Structure formats: C-alpha cells, structure tokens
Amino acid sequence: MITSIFSKSRPINYIAVTTLLVACYFLYLQKHPEWMNSAEEILSKVGLLLVLAGSLFIANFVTKKNGLSKDNSYVFLFFFSFMVLFPSTLGNSNLIISNFFVLLALRRLISLQSLLTPKEKIFDASLWIFVATIFHFWSILFIIIVFVSILFHVSRDYRNWVLPFIAFFSVGVITLMYALIFDKSLINTVIDSALIDFDFNYFTNNYQNFAFSLYVIIAIFFFVTQSLTLPNKPLNMQSSYKKIIVSFIIGAVVFLISAEKGNSLLIYTYAPVAIMATNHVEATQVNWMKETIVYVIFGCSLLTFFSQL
Q1: Which has the closest alpha carbon to 10: 65, 60, 59, 52?
Q2: Quick one: which of 93, 304, 111, 76 has its CA closest to 208?
C-alpha cells in the first residue's frame, strides 16, 4: 500500500512527510526543553528545522530535475527515514548546515551534464563545499566530486580546473575577515576540527547499535546494486549516477575519519543512499518486494526513533 502512495509525486506526500519531520523534530527537542526559555534559541531551532526541510526538498529536486528517478516521492520518504533513524542528527546544527551546503553543491554538479553555464556551476559548487567546510572540516573532501565532474564533462578547458581554487580563496578571505571582526576563535575552531579519529566506541545503548547496523546493511546493499546496474543506465545518465556513488563513498569516508564520532556524521550519505534506494525500488518488478523494502526502511526508522527518545 505504501508503495502505491509514494509511487506518484503528489503534494499530499510531501505534506505528510514534512509534517512527520516537524513532529519528530520537536519530540526530539523535548529531551532538552530549556531551548524554550529563550526567544533566540526558539528562532534558532525553527531555522534549523527549515534547513532540515530544505535538505529534503533539495534532494528531491536534484533527483527529479536531472532524471535520476521516475515521477515518485521515494527519495523524500527515504531521506526522512534516515534522518529519524538517527535522532541525534536532528540536533546537530553544524552537520545539518554543512550537509545543506553540500546538497546545494551536488545540485549544481549533477546539472553540469547539460553543459549549460559550466563555469558558473563549477564555481558555485566549489563555493558551497568550502562554506560547508566551515561547519564541518572534513566535508572539504566533497571537492573531489567537483574535479570528477570537470573530468567527466569539461576537462579540455583549463580554466575550469582553476575555478575551485578561486572559490577556495574567496571563501577563505571572507571567513578570515569575519573571524577578525566578529569571532576570532572561528579559525582555531575550524583548524582544531581537522583531526582524524578511527575510534568507534561511541555507542551508548543497544538502540544506537541496532540503528547503525541496520543503516550499514541498507547502504551497502543499495550501493552494490547501484554499482552493478550502472552499465544498464542510459549512457547520457551514467555520469550523474557515478557522481551519486562517489558522493556516497566520500560521505562514508567523512564518517570514518572525523573526530567526535556519532551516528549523525552519516548525514552526508543520506541523500545518495535515498537516491540509490529509489532506483532499486523502481527497478524491482515484484510488488511484495517493493513493499518489504519500503516498510522495513520506513517502519524500522520510526520504531528506532521512538526507542531512542
């Protein structure tokens, strides 16, 4: 039943999932109700919710606009499911904002296949990634996708290879000026976050362990199926799917090497896995298998969310 509901791109689907996101977000915030004592904190939390919702819509837009899926709402549903699978994601403002800018960059890079205004898209994507780096240093690794995209589409023009460095210089100068005027500790904060840590002993309960194990199984399964079916995709679309695969790999590396480990670091992989999961569901011909996949992801995510409150 749920597959028939989300097999079409209806406004009611987006309204329902967005409503669920709002409900889950404020349920999570009730763990630390002191945020309601300050108008500034209330505005901050509402703003963060808008960024979360915006991330959902950007991922959905990237998928629809660039033909990465059919006309359905699965990406929207899966992305939301992964968000609530790890409730700590909903409270990590730096990662939410950083991932938002990475998605903006991915939107520009996927559309590069049209070859319309490539220089603007390369610069914009690089700019967004370096802005994301301010909030979480290791998101700088996503600059690899920029160079991969240049290699795929516009490698012959040497100026395209220079643009990411111009974007780096632009963000660096603006950030330095902001730090000197408003917050001198910002530069030290960014530098201190550039640490590598492979310690995974961060689980505090069995529910976190279960959620992590479930997500790893889901992510690896869809990554493998997407990689195996890649040669069957239309030739003009293969570069876009490759970018999604590379994005997932980079997101996984960011999780592996980042200090201050937590399941919320997996946020960079949510959109790529949601797109790969959508492709798999669309390619599945047996209806009960589709239903099983969607129910397992959506149902287990909600169950695990409420278990961790």
Answers
A1: 60
A2: 304
Alpha helices in the chain (DSSP H): 2-6, 11-29, 39-65, 74-85, 93-110, 118-135, 143-153, 158-181, 185-192, 206-229, 235-257, 267-283, 287-307
Per-residue pLDDT band at 8 (split at 50, 70, 90): confident
pLDDT band at 250 (very low <50, low <70, confident <90, very high): very high
C-alpha separations of 60 from 157, 172, 309 in Å: 31, 31, 28
Angle CA 246–251–255, to nearest 5: 145
Helix axis angle for 39-65 and 267-283, nearest 10°, is 40
Q: Return the DSSP state at 182.
A: T
- DSSP, collapsed to helix, strand or coil, labels residue 38 as coil
Distant-in-sequence, close-in-space partners of 89: CB < 8 Å, separation ≥ 6:
83, 95, 96, 263, 264, 266, 267
Check residue 196 and give its pLDDT.
86
Tell me the C-alpha distance between 153 and 135, whole Å. Answer: 29
Contacts of 259 (CB under 8 A, 6+ apart): 193, 195, 196, 197
Partners of residue 196 on adjacent β-strands:
258
How far apart CA 266 and CA 98 sit, in angstroms, is: 12
Within 8 A by CB and 6+ apart from 5, the residues are 13
Q: Which two tokens stand for residue 60?
A: 């959905």
Global pTM? Answer: 0.93
Phi/psi region, residue 148 (left: phi>0; alpha: psi -120 to 50; beta: rest), is alpha
- Per-residue pLDDT band for 58 (boundaries 50, 70, 90) equals very high
Provide the residue type at 222 as one letter.
Answer: F
